[in-house]
Amino acid sequence: MMNEMFPNVRMRRLRGLKLIKETRISVDDLILPLFIDENIEGKTKNPIDSMPGQYRFSIEGVVKEVLEARSMGIKSVLLFGIPARKDLIGSEAFNNQGVIQRAVRRIKEEVDDIIVITDLCLCEYTSHGHCGLVENDKVVNDPTLDILGKIAVSQAEAGADMVAPSGMMDGMVKVIRDKLDTQGFVDTAIMSYAAKYNSALYGPFREAADSGFKFGDRSGYQMNVSNAREALREIELDVREGADIVMVKPAIFYLDIISRVRARFDIPLAAYNVSGEYSMITAASEKGYLNREEVIMEGLTAIKRAGADLIITYFAKDIAPFLK
Ligand code: PBG
Ligand code: ZN
Description:
By secondary structure, the protein is an alpha/beta fold. Helix content is 37%, strand content 18%. The strands form two sheets. It has an eight-stranded parallel barrel with strand order 1-4-5-8-9-10-11-12, surrounded by eight helices. It has a two-stranded antiparallel ribbon with strand order 6-7. Bound molecules: ligand PBG and zinc ion. Ligand PBG is lined by residues 119, 121, 123, 131, 166-167, 202, 205-206, 211, 218, 274-275.
């Protein structure tokens, strides 16, 4: 026993060699989120004020962006659409000529070997900005499911490899899996936003995606930030309903959740490094308060170390050149 202590044991011996590194991030782990705005014509992109360095793209603009990301080794993208027309039920979300459907087709035509994941939600498409149908100022669950199924099928028809339902409706994964299967899309995967918290860190995204709500808030469907055991129940339900990948969101404030999900479940786990996490680091580094690249790497390493397999991050292109 005595031998297993100082001075025989010196932790600094190996540290000095920099040989042991328990956690590695690979470019294969990264998913790049992209915004496609149907209102942009005649140019490739517009900057997003709340997220310096991020853009809304036109359809032709996003094709270029995906080509560039692919050339940097990034294998998958997560697409959000901003339609020219919004209505009460979000009909543009399941229009086969909608902004996402056209973008997916163009990307699949022009880019080889890219995994296209489509966000599957109503908030960018509804005039009230909620993630589900609204009746008497309430977001109603079951009538929403039917529409989510329709959106899934139209995205799969356009060529999406994976759909990512983000609205936190109960039963959404089951209904989407059933609809996809009955329409013959048995190989279209589902990445479910299984444990999505009602977080203030989504603020910048709502400007980016024009998806802010016109009344109320999302506390009736997204999780209370205080709850951890509830996240495990949410994950378990989505696993049983047929999710292929489950997600915890946000990421860096929720490392405890990532770690608990990893310990309990064997299903692939994604973590969403959200807009607020992006904008905080970006703003602080613009002010010179911290080193951008180092903090990005530290944050993403923490997410992997906690147990995530995949990281959805707006930093993907920033750090791809530093990864193998
Ligand atoms: C909407 C959605 C949100 C995000 C992804 N999908 C915001 C919200 O729930 O209001 C947040 C992503 C981010 O902040 O980067 N279903
Ligand atoms: Zn939504």
